[in-house]
Specification:
The chain is built from eight helices and five strands, in the order E-H-H-H-H-H-E-H-E-H-E-H-E. With 196 residues, it is α/β, with parallel strands linked by helices.
């Protein structure tokens, strides 16, 4: 069955922003080994989760007595968002990403699905002038597998007519769980994508 819909991840798939996102957590806390170790520990297990979940885990790791974190997490998340949005607007795109979007846009329904908060994601995509390539942009708090089901319904396609393109476990698992195809950009460069 021919592919009709392409669902792209963002960080590490279209732009080289994974290191930027990783490093941004360290900018939020004191630069000492105690905090650095706590951040590394959380990120080693949870890097693909939302920034809110990660920040809550880091805050709990550095202050085990804390009970209610809602307001503190939001404050840290706002600062993290400022750092990451600014960097993601101008960091390098993954080799050939813009060219590939231009080539694919007339022939396939393109969507974006990321754990980046949706408002920030839309701002970054607009800054990069990529908005017109995508039929819709989905970000946090949406879940990737739910997004795939919504796209299937909207496009009236079967799971096998969707190709998820990403670099993370969440991309692969959501594609598998929804019955969609998956292209892993960690194993093959984006430019190796071959569609019929």
């Amino acid at each position: 069955m021919a592919i009709k819909v392409l669902v792209f991840d963002f960080d590490g798939t279209l732009v080289e922003s994974n290191k930027l996102k990783y490093d941004a957590y360290f900018e939020l806390f004191p630069r000492d080994e105690y905090h650095n170790e706590a951040i590394r520990n959380v990120l080693s297990k949870s890097f693909e989760e939302s920034r809110y979940s990660i920040l809550e885990k880091i805050l709990r790791e550095v202050d085990t007595d804390v009970i209610e974190l809602g307001e503190t997490v939001n404050r840290f998340a706002d600062r993290y968002n400022e750092i990451v949005v600014k960097g993601a607007k101008t960091c390098p795109e993954c080799p050939g990403a813009g060219k590939l979007l231009r080539q694919l846009h007339p022939h396939y329904a393109l969507y974006l699905s990321s754990t980046t908060p949706e408002e920030a994601l839309r701002e970054i995509i607009s800054f990069r002038r990529w908005t017109g390539y995508f039929k819709n942009i989905f970000g946090y708090p949406r879940k990737k597998q739910e997004t795939l089901r919504e796209i299937m319904q909207k496009e009236q396609v079967s799971p096998r007519q969707i190709l998820v393109i990403g670099d993370g476990k969440s991309d692969r698992v959501s594609a598998e769980n929804a019955g969609c195809n998956f292209f892993d950009v960690k194993n093959k460069p984006l430019l190796a994508l071959q569609l019929q």
